[in-house]
Amino acid sequence: MSELFTHETIDISAPAATVWALLTDPALTKQYMFGCEAISDWKPGSPLIWRGELEGKPMVFVTGRVVTFEPHSLLAYTTFDPHGGMVDVPENHVTMTCRLTPLSATATRLEFSQGDFSRVQNGAARYADAMKGGDGLLEKLKQLAESDGR
C-alpha cells in the first residue's frame, strides 16, 4: 500500500512564538483541542498525553511520544488512541508533524501532516477518518493565535 498522510496548512497573523505556545502549553491546548491538555516535558522520547474530561471524569484521550522538539519551528509526536481497540505498540502509532514557518515578524504558516496510516492497524479506516476533518481545529487555533492566544 502507498504511504497515507494527511496535510493541512494555514497562515496565521501571529508570530511563531504565539503559535508555538498554542501547540505546547496545556492551558492553551485545552482551548482548541476539545478540552484536552497536552501533557509532556517535551523532550524527544518523552511521553505525551492528551488529558481531558468525559462526563465529569478525568480521561486520557490520546497517548504518544515526542519525536522532535525545535522551539518555534518544528514539533513532531506520535499519537495513539488507547480506546480504539488496538494494541499499544509503536507500529500502531501515527506521527503528527507541526512545522512553523515565519512569513514575517507577525505572521506564521502552520503546516500539519499526519501519518503514515498505511503501516498501522486499520490504517485505511483511520486515514479515512482523519481525511474527513470538519472539526475546525486549525481555524480555532488561528482564531486564538490572532487574539494573542490568551
Quick recap:
This protein is of the alpha+beta class and 150 residues long. It has a single domain, classed as Alpha-D-Glucose-1,6-Bisphosphate, Chain A, domain 4 (2-Layer Sandwich). It has helices at 16-24, 26-32, 123-132, 137-146; strands spanning 5-12, 37-39, 47-54, 57-70, 74-79, 94-104, 107-115.
- What top-tier CATH class fits best? Alpha Beta
State the distance separating the first and last CA atoms: 43 Å
Q: How much of the residues is beta strand, in percent?
A: 35-45%
Largest sheet: 7 strands, antiparallel
What do the pLDDT scores average to?
92
Please give the number of β-strands.
Answer: 7
Strand order of the largest sheet: 1-7-6-5-4-3-2
User: How many distinct domains?
Assistant: 1
Q: What would the CATH topology be?
A: Alpha-D-Glucose-1,6-Bisphosphate, Chain A, domain 4
Secondary-structure-based class equals alpha+beta
Unreliable sequence segments? none
CATH-level-2 architecture: 2-Layer Sandwich
Number of helices: 4
What does the oligomeric state look like here?
single chain
Overall body shape? globular
* Helix/strand order: EHHEEEEEEHH
Rg estimate, integer Å: 15 Å
- Measured as a percent range, the helix fraction is 10-25%
CATH superfamily: START domain
